[in-house]
Amino acid sequence: MKKKSFYSCVDCLIPSPLSEQHMVIKKKAEAENGIITAYASEEVRFASNQPWIFIKLKETKGLDGVIFFSVDQFLYGDHFNLKLFKNIIDYGYEIHFARENFSFYKNSKNNQILDFIISHDLVFRRKEEEIRNLIY
Fold first, then answer.
1. Burial class (CB in 10 A: 0-12, 13-18, 19+), 40
2. What pTM value is reported for the model?
3. What are phi and psi for residue 79, nearest 5 degrees?
4. Does the pLDDT value for residue 54 go beyond 60?
5. Which of 60, 81, 87, 90 is the most buried (most CB within 10 A)?
């Protein structure tokens, strides 16, 4: 069986050595029957909106998906970066988060995990009034 090809995206904002992040991401790739064929991270100044990763994914031929070190990489802006998440999935890529061991596959959305991530973001980073306005 052919191994999957993944883009590795380390987290530039956490105090974790890059070598450790690469090791954890590599283990996740192996667990998904894949290998890492490209590496990157967002530039520190732009981590909150992640403008480059999707462009780099589209430019790199033969990829099956991307493995982020942590789901936190989608939480550095004002809210969960659902637009990037949706763009990656809709383009047909898998999304994996190595540290949390969360996976989202092509044509199969794991809505419970995504709902949990977004709920966590709302509860822990928003004011009570903002949450009430979103719900009601």
1. middle
2. 0.82
3. -155, 170
4. yes
5. 81
